[in-house]
Amino acid sequence: MCTLSIPVSIFTFNIAINCCCHSNRVDYAFSLLATTFKRGFVPDVVTYTTLIRGLLSQNKSQEARLFFANLIKFRQVQPDVVTFNTMIDGLCKTGHADMAFWLFRSMEKCDCEPNTVTYNTIIDSLCKRGLVDDAFNLHSEMMEKCILPNVWTYNIIIQVLCNLNRWEEVGLLLDQMIHDMKISPDVHTFTILVDAYSKSGKLDDAKHIIQIMNERGVYPDIVTYNTLIHAYCSQGQMDEALAMLNTIRSKKIMPDCYTYSILVNAYCRELKLDIAMDIYRNMASDGLSPTVVTHNILLHGLCQLGKSMEALTFFYKIQGLGHKPDIVTYETLLGGLCKNHYVDKALSLFRTIECNGLIPESNTYNIIIRGCLRSKKYDGACKLVDKMVDCGFSSDAATTSVLRHLLLSKAQDPTLVALYQKCLH
């Protein structure tokens, strides 16, 4: 556009700056800011707000705070409520809640009135820190200032009250929301309630909530149903969980990977691997590709049943299909192989971790070291301890306990004594 002399404006630059920020190239965005000055344009509040959001999205909260402070200090632009909301949200998400609250209280001094979004952000931060009464006070302050709460405001507070089992206050808040404020609960509100009742073992109440949803024309989504399926599985009511899966399909709601993972995990816990495998295979019929979490659940189930070699075969099969393991996958397999006395296989697998672009963690080393110790491969354990220490890790309580137990029966073994000394250091 510039080369062809097509006119550009600050709006054009704002779009380009926003694009760079969304592409995680905030450095390009600031280069464009410099170009706006060179071309004689005056950046507006949208320009600066976009840049602040870009810095925060790349975890550059300190730079964002400095940039925002300079805007105020040098009066480059008058920040509006969107600018403040962006900064407050970023501070809350990066663990600077006190600073966010201070900025929230400073808004009026800067001739900027907080809005519903501002209050929601601060209320959410207070609730996450367990300061529920402060959140309630802020909710009351909103009403006094005629800043109307929305469904999100109520969802935030209802969520934390449910977590604390403060059911009476939940009821009062819902009553205020529906009858006084004329705000209709949304699917998220109802899902919060279904989840809370399910976790408290009140499945009848949870099902009643779903009935109320349907009566009000707010239809449950897959998140709502997943919550209920998880509750059935937690209580061992597997038939009801499977029936709920069929209900989902009858309502033309597609199960997701989490739905299947819940069921697979539940049947693995019940040691019913055949059914778990059948459910796993059914994922493809719903057009779903299993996640690494689903695979890890199945591998753990196989290892729990002592079928660690079958687990290893399954691991190589899914790798061949293009599924990438994570470090939990390896730790699950290593633990299963060592537990079932296939330590050589475990050592061989351990050596392939880095080849697959992963880095062994402290837990990974400790699992394989304990396997070596229990199989009397003390030299191998010694080398692994050296490597673990070089990586900055140390032995955990379980590994040290195994060593102590071995020393009690083989106190004179110099290799074990040397290993124990290394682990202590």
Automatic annotation (TrEMBL):
<dbReference type="Pfam" id="PF12854">
    <property type="entry name" value="PPR_1"/>
</dbReference>
<feature type="repeat" description="PPR">
    <location>
        <begin position="361"/>
        <end position="395"/>
    </location>
</feature>
<dbReference type="InterPro" id="IPR011990">
    <property type="entry name" value="TPR-like_helical_dom_sf"/>
</dbReference>
<dbReference type="Pfam" id="PF13041">
    <property type="entry name" value="PPR_2"/>
</dbReference>
<feature type="repeat" description="PPR">
    <location>
        <begin position="186"/>
        <end position="220"/>
    </location>
</feature>
<feature type="repeat" description="PPR">
    <location>
        <begin position="115"/>
        <end position="149"/>
    </location>
</feature>
<comment type="similarity">
    <text>Belongs to the PPR family. P subfamily.</text>
</comment>
<feature type="repeat" description="PPR">
    <location>
        <begin position="9"/>
        <end position="43"/>
    </location>
</feature>
<feature type="repeat" description="PPR">
    <location>
        <begin position="256"/>
        <end position="290"/>
    </location>
</feature>
<feature type="repeat" description="PPR">
    <location>
        <begin position="326"/>
        <end position="360"/>
    </location>
</feature>
<feature type="repeat" description="PPR">
    <location>
        <begin position="221"/>
        <end position="255"/>
    </location>
</feature>
<protein>
    <submittedName>
        <fullName>Pentatricopeptide repeat protein</fullName>
    </submittedName>
</protein>
<feature type="repeat" description="PPR">
    <location>
        <begin position="44"/>
        <end position="79"/>
    </location>
</feature>
<feature type="repeat" description="PPR">
    <location>
        <begin position="80"/>
        <end position="114"/>
    </location>
</feature>
<keyword id="KW-0677">Repeat</keyword>
<feature type="repeat" description="PPR">
    <location>
        <begin position="291"/>
        <end position="325"/>
    </location>
</feature>
<dbReference type="InterPro" id="IPR002885">
    <property type="entry name" value="PPR_rpt"/>
</dbReference>
<feature type="repeat" description="PPR">
    <location>
        <begin position="150"/>
        <end position="185"/>
    </location>
</feature>
